[in-house]
Design a protein that fits this description.
Blueprint: E1 2-3, E2 10-11, E3 13-14, H1 18-28, E4 37-39, H2 43-47, H3 55-64, E5 69-74, H4 81-84, E6 89-93, H5 98-107, E7 111-112, H6 127-134, E8 154-157, E9 164-167, H7 173-180, E10 184-185, E11 213-217, H8 221-229, E12 234-239, E13 251-255, H9 259-274, E14 280-285, H10 293-302
Parallel strand pairs: 4-6, 5-8, 9-10, 11-14, 12-13, 12-14
Antiparallel strand pairs: 1-2, 3-7, 4-7, 5-6, 8-9
The structure holds threonylcarbamoyladenylate and magnesium ion.
Threonylcarbamoyladenylate (TXA) binds at residues 5, 7-8, 10, 34-37, 68, 70, 72, 84, 87, 89-91, 113-115, 152-153, 155, 166-167, 199-201.
């Protein structure tokens, strides 16, 4: 079953049942060494599946839950190996979306849910995106409209000292540090053969459109014009209104200059361009500033060239 959260749509299964969780991996074509996030109704449910609940987890949960923050903590014995890729830690989050919350309360068990897309594709922010990506592999899709945050949750690992930011997201790094002190950012690309991966969402080919996509710093105009001159059909994802208008025949999506609205629009924009059958998508990166950490991270991963 797929359901909306405030970040992206999730593909859910009872996190306590290995047979149910196995179906998620099958439907997504997800490698078994990529662990899942377990969704819970609140902090007490999270504690019940963790081995220990670090002080930092309490601080973060009371400030950001329910919300787009995933905490990696020591794994408790109730969780099957498949969920954590047999690793000693578990990722948990209490989603704020009313549909997700209702579902968790009604189910009465924790729900393991990755983003509801085929592995390696762009995450879904509408029910239609889920249908397009998973087709018959998903039995039920609860349509809650477009997801408000639009990018996946921030993931922070609390089992290391200092804690590590495994995936930037809607909860900014500065605000995390304001709550629990120093948090290390992880830049290195993990070795894909490591089992389990430190956070396989960090594999470089992730969240990618099918259309060859390239990211540029500053104006994309020159690249767009170059590609067009070769006869290629080009899409242009701009950062704000372009200073020089698009060459005729180029498909343009003008993205907002405000982080929250940019993130909320991002995947739908990439899905739209990807559906046009273009030869090339040129993406203008937002400024290299901490405010744009999560968005730039997703855009670089969307880059296929
Ligand atoms: O916003 C979200 O987090 C969405 C919604 C549905 O909640 N879910 C999501 O799930 O993005 P997924 O599976 O697409 O991404 C989960 C990320 C992956 O990068 C995975 O490797 C990482 O979390 N992860 C899961 N368990 C982990 C663990 N025990 N240690 C480190 N990373 C973990
Ligand atoms: Mg995903």
């Amino acid at each position: 079953m797929a359901f909306p959260t405030e970040t992206v749509y999730g593909l859910g299964a009872n996190a306590l049942r290995a047979e149910a969780v196995a179906k998620i991996f099958a439907a997504k074509g997800r490698p078994a060494n990529n662990p899942l996030i377990v969704h819970v109704a609140g902090e007490s449910a999270a504690r019940s599946i963790a081995l220990h609940w670090p002080a930092a987890a309490s601080k973060l949960a009371s400030r950001f839950w329910p919300g787009p923050l995933t905490l990696v903590v020591p794994r408790g014995p109730r969780i099957p190996d498949l969920v954590t890729a047999a690793g000693p830690t578990i990722a948990v989050r209490a989603p704020a979306h009313p549909v997700a919350y209702r579902l968790l309360v009604t189910a009465g068990f924790p729900i393991a849910a990755p983003s509801a897309n085929r592995s390696g594709e762009i995450s879904p922010t509408t029910a239609e995106h889920v249908r397009k990506s998973l087709g018959d592999a998903v039995d039920i899709i609860i349509d809650g409209g477009p997801t408000p945050d639009g990018i996946e949750s921030t993931v922070v690992d609390l089992t290391t000292s200092p804690p590590r930011l495994l995936r930037p997201g809607p909860v900014p790094l500065a605000i995390l540090m304001d709550t629990i002190g120093n948090v290390e950012t992880v830049n290195r690309q993990p070795d894909a053969r490591q089992v389990p991966l430190p956070s396989p969402g960090m594999m470089s080919r992730h969240y990618a459109p099918r259309t060859p996509t390239e990211c540029v710093e500053g104006s994309g105009f020159a690249r767009v014009a170059q590609w067009q001159a070769t006869g290629a059909k080009v899409g242009w994802l701009t950062f704000g209104e372009p200073a020089i208008g698009p060459p005729a025949g180029v498909d343009v999506i003008v993205m907002p200059r405000e982080t929250g609205s940019y993130a909320s629009r991002l995947y739908a924009a990439l899905h739209e361009l990807d559906d046009l059958g273009l030869d090339r998508i040129v993406v203008e990166l937002p400024p290299e500033h901490d405010d744009w950490l999560a968005v730039r991270d997703r855009l670089r991963r969307a880059g296929t060239t």
